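Continuing the series of single-chain predictions for the mutant panel. This is the parent chain; the variants come on the following pages.
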Amino acid sequence: MNLLLIGSGGREHALAWALSASPMVSKLYCTPGNAGIAQVAECVAIGAMDLDRLVAFAKEKKIDFVVIGPETPLVAGLWDRLEAAGIKALGPSMAGAVLEGSSALMPAASNRSQSPATSGVSGPITTKSIFFSLAKATSRSRSIAPMATHSATCAIPALPGVQ
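Parent structure:
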């Protein structure tokens, strides 16, 4: 099986190491990769956000399965593009990635379903703007005002059932 791993961080290094040990894997490519990943996979200089080139590369190399490590290409729709091209991939669709990666949308969806994880929150409010949620950065505030500033500047796709 030909595999393509997207990413260049420590998480992708661990994935590359584990995937390379599988007897099911005949060839492992990683884009863009790093020096550690290069010890167990063939690294290819294609950025994780170069979605068109990633899909073209997967077609050219007859990739059987793609593992997408970073959130940003998922939020940009890489999984959807690979699926449309007939290439199986691990990861959520663009809509799912936006929902999971957003600390503005996920709490709203959880509150609408009365999830116990988000109901009855007290004390200082912890927020993440949609721009920074991909890096998992947070800001603490005693008011809700910073949330309005960040979320008002976001352009996100409409998701069914989430307002």
